[in-house]
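Each field is set out underneath.
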Amino acid sequence: MTVRTKILLPLRGRAVARSFSVSRPRWEAAPLPPRKPVGAFRGGLFGFLTGAVVAGASVYYYVLGDYRISNEMLNDDITALQHATIKLQSYITELESRVDQLKKK
């Protein structure tokens, strides 16, 4: 089916008829090809795997952050223990020197 329309264009004082036609298939959109439905098993499996990956990644980053914090706390405790040990060692050295001085008298 063809639709025809006449358009009048002025040409130096007189009107000229010009025909314009468009075929029907160009007007109508072509039907979309049928989609293959994703099966419930494939969709469920894909959803499960996606959820498992997201949950695993979030747990990994949570544990990694917790490990970093506990590691920093452990390093702080080790540093404090080293300072206390050095202080105790200097105190013991001072006491030993005083005992030696008292024995000499």
